[in-house]
Every structure is written in C-alpha cells, then in structure tokens.
Design brief:
The protein has about 280 residues and is an alpha+beta fold. Helices cover about 15% and strands about 25% of the residues. It is globular, with a radius of gyration of 19 Å.
Length: about 280
C-alpha cells in the first residue's frame, strides 16, 4: 500500500498549496522541500505580509496555522476526564469514550496545515507480506517527523496556559509490571504518521483518518494522523493508560490542541533506519 499526502485526493487543496509555494518563491522566501532535512527551512518563523495574507485566505475550518509559534492550533473540546484511553484526540461521534479531546476539524485539514509549516509525514504502522502467497507477515513500525502535543486552555485563575498532553495521562489499573502506579506517561511527542489514502478507480481516494476519527492514538490502529513509536495493542486487557482529569477543564469545555513539530528531529524505528528513509 502506498502512503501519500491528502493533496493527491483533494484538487482544491492542491491548488491552494501550489499558490502558497508559488507565492513564497515570488517573494524570495525559502520553500519547504519534502526531500530536505527537518529544520533546514526557517520560512515559517519569518514570513512576509503577503504570505500571512495567503494563509488567512486558506480556510481550514477548526484549524489555525500559528506562524509566530510555528505550530498548528486545532479547535477541540474535552470529552473525557475519567476512563481508559486508546487515543488522545478523535473526531466527533467516533471514539469520545476513550479520547481526551474531540477535534472540530477534519484530520486531512490538520495534515494539510502541518505540511504547510514544514512538518514531514511518514506512515502508520502496517503489516507487510514477506512471501509471494501472502501467508507470512512482518510488522512495520510507524515513522515520520516528530510533533509535540499540548493542550491550551484557561486555568482556574482565568489565565491561558499551555501544558504537555502527558500531564493528563496516568497508569491504569490494567497496567502491567512495566508501568508502575507512580509512572508518568513517557512522552508528549508523537510521530506524524499521516494516515493513509485508500481506494482505486476513477474516484478520489479516501483519507482514512477522516472516516475512523483516529486523530492522535496511543493504541495502534494503522490509520492514525499522529501516533506513538512502535506498535501498541488496543485490546482491553493491555490498555495501560487512563485520563488524569485532576487538572483538566470539565467535559464540554473548549480548548486548543496545539501541535508543534520538532523541525530538527525525526523518529527512528527499532531497526535503526531513519524514519523518513
């Protein structure tokens, strides 16, 4: 299965991207090149008023490209303050019972915004046949650029605060011996796996995360936008993490899910190969 970006299946989005990159070139700005190393393009931090105006005209409902912070802000809502977790974020009417936040945006639009500030997608975990008959498989871990995940909301004093998503996750009662009761969720950094496009024929391909709602996952589903390194079971008996709602706003509260790419870093699978190789 081939992993592509959503512009291949969205003609209008492709047109906007070409316009944006052409505008950068016309202004003499560095243009993000998917073949270059993360961190080699600094165009997102200092851009001209014309580029800013172009981004303002790029309408991605529920998504804001924050050039000053070099991040993507996604309108979200707290949907769980107590319970087991398979995801960090999902879309509406999908998996709110096992996610911390529900996002108002389409995952493919979030993907688009991340691309526009220079983040590098890879692929979710997958299984690959290693024989001609397709009876033997090997698990391929996810790969892609690294993205730090935060929640932004007003604290009890009314002051806006940004906190890493790991602050709101704790070990569950089902955690195995490798995750102690006092353990902290190990990271707020996820892989920009980029979901996958599916389908053939004359019609447009489907961006699977738009259908599944698996925006940011802890368990492995194979169609996530962002995910943890390696492969993690989604079986009930192996769920190791739950919500720590002590410092979360109430269910239904509006928050910002902030995605900040690490432009100088990339995930490396267990085999030691670079994640974007």
């Amino acid at each position: 299965m081939k992993f592509l970006n959503p512009f291949k299946s969205a003609r209008s989005a492709a047109t906007l991207l070409v316009f944006f990159l052409a505008l950068l070139a016309a202004r003499g700005e560095p243009v993000p090149d998917p073949k270059t190393e993360p961190g080699t393009v600094e165009s997102a931090s200092v851009v001209s008023p014309e580029v800013e105006a172009a981004l303002e005209r790029l309408k991605l409902p529920g998504v804001k490209i924050n050039l000053a912070e070099r991040c993507v802000d996604v309108d979200s809502e707290i949907c769980l303050v107590e319970g087991m977790l398979e995801l960090i974020a999902c879309t509406k009417d999908t998996k709110e019972h096992e996610s911390i936040v529900m996002v108002a945006a389409k995952p493919s639009h979030i993907h688009t915004a991340l691309l526009l500030i220079g983040a590098r997608p890879g692929n979710p975990a997958m299984r690959k046949a290693i024989d001609e008959k397709g009876t033997r498989f090997v698990d391929i871990p996810p790969r892609g650029g690294l993205v730090d995940v935060f929640l932004v909301f007003k604290d009890s004093n009314g002051k806006e605060t940004e906190r890493p998503i790991s602050d709101f996750i704790e070990p569950s009662e089902r955690a195995d011996d490798g995750v102690g009761e006092d353990s902290k969720f190990p990271t707020h950094t996820f892989i920009f796996a980029g979901s996958i496009l599916h389908g053939g024929g004359k019609g447009p391909r489907r961006y699977l995360c738009d259908q599944s709602g698996d925006v940011i996952s802890i368990a492995t589903f194979g169609d996530e936008l962002l995910c943890l390194p390696d492969i993690h079971s989604d079986s009930n008996g192996e769920l190791a993490w739950q919500v720590n709602g002590e410092h979360l706003p109430a269910v239904g509260s509006k928050v910002i899910l902030r995605l900040r790419p690490q432009f100088n870093s990339r995930a490396v699978p267990k085999n030691g190969d670079p994640a974007d190789k």
